Amino acid sequence: xxxxSYAQEIVNELQRSVGQLETAEAEQLAALLxxxxxxxxxxxxRSGLMGRAFAMRLMHTGKEAYVVGETxxxxxxxxxxxxxxxxxxxTASLLTMAGKAKAAGAAVVAVTISPESxxxxxxxxTVKLPGAPKEQTDGGHITIQPMASLFEQTLLLFYxxxxxxxxxxxxxxxxxxxxxxANLE
Length: 185
Prior knowledge:
Distance between the termini: 39 Å
CATH superfamily: Glucose-6-phosphate isomerase like protein, domain 1
Strand order of the largest sheet: 2-1-3-4-5
CATH topology: Rossmann fold
CATH class: Alpha Beta
Structural class: alpha/beta
Shape: globular
Largest sheet: 5 strands, parallel
Number of domains: 1
Radius of gyration: 16 Å
Order of helices and strands: HHEHEEHEHEHH
């Protein structure tokens, strides 16, 4: 297969993946974020990169949003939300974060392939995303992509869809959001 054919197959996989999302779970997350105080986002590896993009867009919408682990990230507390992106739902560092957030009185959301995972069971809300865990992509024919690429790509699309829903609910426009865009670049 050539490079363009691979790209087309990735788009096809994403189309199938997005078609499996649960509207109710997505709507609940958007509503929770709209009524929350601060929003904290975390994930490990590439899932973490997708979370960083989500935190940036949340900030553009006017939400007070932080990436866990950054030096300017404040403490979490009641009324706040921690959003964890984890394919497996078993990442030890994220599980520890979830426990600390719950102890501080914050809500925890797990966006994961495995809602029945350790993080999923601890979370106040789960959003199930389709995808294949890193270790199960070769034999299952779920995806042609390596490791958890399909989950990570779906995660970014899902996060962007949540932003669009929040924009709709608050009357935000790209023009208004641009006022929160970085201007020291």
